[in-house]
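lol forgot to send this yesterday, sorry. struct tokens for the thing we talked abt
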């Protein structure tokens, strides 16, 4: 991990993102994002949060889906974080349950953040969309 000022800013922003997400603080969470974001989550068509977004309103809708569709995480652990300059990649493991089907899914995913001037300008998520698709299938 680098110790440059840019890496510290990136790390601090990523830390603030996860703190706000974990606390369910949507205002603080949205405050971590730039006004326009390259925001992408690839996935199966029946995964409600898959797709591209760019505005804070669209990002707020994205994060608002989770409490509507999923039970709280059964487990969540960040296993790896690599930061260099404006970029950080976080690898995490989590287990959630889809409330409509009562099916659980294990998701090991990677998040690629790019932080510009202390705000998240890129958020690309790479997750096991097949496992999530299966959990949404009745």
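and heres what i got for the seq, position by position
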């Amino acid at each position: 991990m680098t110790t440059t000022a840019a890496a510290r800013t990136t790390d601090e922003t990523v830390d603030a993102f996860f703190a706000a997400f974990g606390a369910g603080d949507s205002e603080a969470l949205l405050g971590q994002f730039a006004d326009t974001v390259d925001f992408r989550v690839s996935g199966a068509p029946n995964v409600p949060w898959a797709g591209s977004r760019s505005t804070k309103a669209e990002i707020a809708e994205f994060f608002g889906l989770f409490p509507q569709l999923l039970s709280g995480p059964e487990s969540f652990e960040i296993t790896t974080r690599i930061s260099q300059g404006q970029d950080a990649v976080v690898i995490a493991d989590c287990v959630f349950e889809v409330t409509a089907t009562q099916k659980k899914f294990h998701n090991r995913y990677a998040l690629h953040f790019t932080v510009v001037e202390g705000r998240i300008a890129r958020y690309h998520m790479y997750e096991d969309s097949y496992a999530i698709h299966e959990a949404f299938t009745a």
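The CA atoms of residues 53 and 59 lie 7 Å apart. anyway ping me if u want another try
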